[in-house]
Amino acid sequence: MLSQISIDTLNSGNGHIHLAKVSSPSVEEVRIASLKVLAMTLLSQVESLERELAANEVSELNLQKEVHSFEAAIIRSALAKTGGRQRKAARLLGVKVTTLNTKIKRHKLGPQASSPADVA
């Protein structure tokens, strides 16, 4: 969750008044969200490899290809988690927006690859 809403209740003489305030996520919350994305992506990659092994479709493991595939998967996951918002996805992944945008283009990930401006 990239934004947190907390509600403070104040007691006034004839009832309760609810004040909502929106605060930025803490460093810990961003780190937890990043680790969740990483864990889900790793699990997905492990399951994919298990299916390939079960079907005897694994011919050769190439480190560069596997890293490329994993990086694309984690970027897709971060973009999905943030509704396609590159700025939020970059924050979640701990990289600069320009770095994320370059990687999106390099991996040819969806419509974001053609529109450099993100925007939220």
Summarize this structure briefly:
This protein is α+β, with helices and mostly antiparallel strands and 120 residues long. Helices cover 55% and strands 15% of the residues. It is globular.
Distance separating the two termini: 15 Å
The residue ranges in which pLDDT falls below 50 over 5 or more consecutive positions are 1-13, 112-120
How large is the share of residues in beta strands?
15-25%
Identify the strand order in the major beta sheet: 1-2
Mean pLDDT equals 75
Describe the main β-sheet briefly: 2 strands, antiparallel
Helix percentage = 55-70%
Q: Give a count of the beta strands, DSSP E runs of length 2 or more.
A: 2
Using the CA coordinates, give the radius of gyration: 20 Å
Global morphology: globular
Judged by helices, strands and strand pairing, the structural class is alpha+beta
What is the number of helical segments per DSSP (H or I, 4+ residues)?
A: 4
Taken in chain order, the helices and strands follow as EEHHHH
Describe the protein.
The chain is α+β, with helices and mostly antiparallel strands and 120 residues long. The chain contains 4 helices and 2 strands. It has a two-stranded antiparallel ribbon. Strand 1 and strand 2 form a beta hairpin. The longest helix is centred in the middle third of the chain and has 28 residues. The N terminus and C terminus are likely disordered.
